[in-house]
Amino acid sequence: MNNEKMIIIGAGAAGLVAAIGCARARYNVLLLEQNSKIGKKILVSGNGKCNIDNKYISANRFHGQNPNFIKEVLKGHDFDVIEKFFTSIGLKLIEGKEGKMFPMSLQASSVVELLEYEAKRVGVETVCECLVTSVEKEGDRFTVKTSQGDKSATKLILASGSPAAPHLGGSDSGYAFSTKMGHTLIPSHPSLVQLCSEESWVKMCAGVKIAGNAKLYANGEYIIEKKGDLLFTNYGISGLAILDLSREVSTRMANYEYCELHLDLMPELSKEKLTNLLLNSIQKESTKPIALLLQGLLNKKLIHIILEQSKCTSKTEGNLNRKEVGKLVYTIKNLKLGINDTKGFQGAEVATGGIDTSEVDPQTMESKLVSNLYFAGEILDVDGDRGGFNFHFAWVSGLRISEALEKNSKA
Question: Are 362 and 400 part of one and the same domain?
């Protein structure tokens, strides 16, 4: 074994893969984890099934202030490279919807246990319940002060994640260690997170889940739209479509922009088709209340706010004319919901921002400012879309480090 000692802070996705790769490259690896068990975020991902990656990797599914860095890191490291790694530890993968990849067992525990076994097999020393309190570099050695004593090594990998999901161990400690050594921090905000609203009507609709479309407007300007589940809650709104546009909401609210959602409750029908559907169903002599008419199309809880926002003055089906129908159709396809906050890092799956990637070599993940200091995973200013992309960056960044070190050792 290589006598050179390496410390990795964080036994999440990036830290585990980096540890295994570096140990395979004959480094003496010490892996430090503050939680009582490794891979805590992995265990809860994909509702316990672990959406481990995505088959269709593209740089435009990742975000950060330095897109060229992302492209360079991903170059030559598509899904096939990650699949090869997991095959090497005995994990078989299957494909779900939208290219989402899962362990064949559909159990996140399979992923963690196989990673843990491989780490032990190749000689990684893992220490859990080890809280790192400070990191310093003197000469060519790093001193890592922890709750279990001081540790020392010539190489250090920071894979300590972001502030997202603190209940799973998320923290900004890695940011503090990095900035103390001279690195720049890009401000961090919650992403893949639920949104909050002060509007009273959402509470009355709590529990309603529909397949819809959400458009985001900031200060009145159209920004982005996402299609998928919309789930109304006591605090506001969630669902896959909301998680997908939450990154934009977080960053814009941080700049004090007013955010409003326009919700299409029936995206499968065009404005024209929905208009004709309503017009053709109207019976001119009917005294059926409008609310009851709409119950044939929509969840009962949503009808009050649709009538209120549409300003429809007709009370019964027989009184509806084309103009009134037009008001109803517009509101059904543009229900407005003001957003005043997100559920914060506590509810977020990932965080935007992180260590400025212009200060990191994309080929090796080594700091350009501090020799033998490396970064992997979410600590960096890179975050991905929902669907396995954040895991992909974590796996790839961890592999990049071990590949570079192995290449250097052979040079």
Answer: yes
